Task: structure prediction
Amino acid sequence: MRDWIARLCLLLMTGPMLALPALAQNAQDTPTAVVQRLNDALLDVMKEADTLGLSGRYDRLEPVLDDLFAFSTMTRVAAGGHWRTLAPEQRDGLTDAFARFSIATYASRFDGFAGEQFEIDSEEAAARGSMLVRSRIITGDGEVVRLDYLLRDNSGTWRIFDIYLDGTISELATRRSEYTSILDSQGYDGLMTRLEGRISDLKAESG
Result:
């Protein structure tokens, strides 16, 4: 995969699995096990990227990411105070677009394999009952990208709530800054148009 670091940064700043259908997540899965499922799924689609194509990678990743990420909570946080002003159908529409854009971003960026390795370093308690799983990606030429995952317990099931690149850059904070700015200036329709446009752009980029 060319320009791995740049592409991963783009994934996290613009974005918030398996050869067989994903198994239902066990309520007893630990935070580390959740992140391991994500890593396994990403490696799987990377190794079959050319055969699957973008749509195949999306279809492979969709049920797994829906299982592992707290997309509803992430969307609510990303919308900030605007969430309270949205009608129920608008909340549903924004959550759906948020999830589809996130999955399409993963499907687009993880588009090949060049010997990458995913490693989990530790699991530790974080604020408000959440857990932080520290991990890293080692590229084929030995470069290391640090990724930390923040997970929260959702009715007995651990789900990914945020991702930190290099331990500091929060994907959710980045999205919140962007989305609230668009909602301030263009409203709900403007944000939906922007998200749908980006999904289309990702599909076009991947041919």
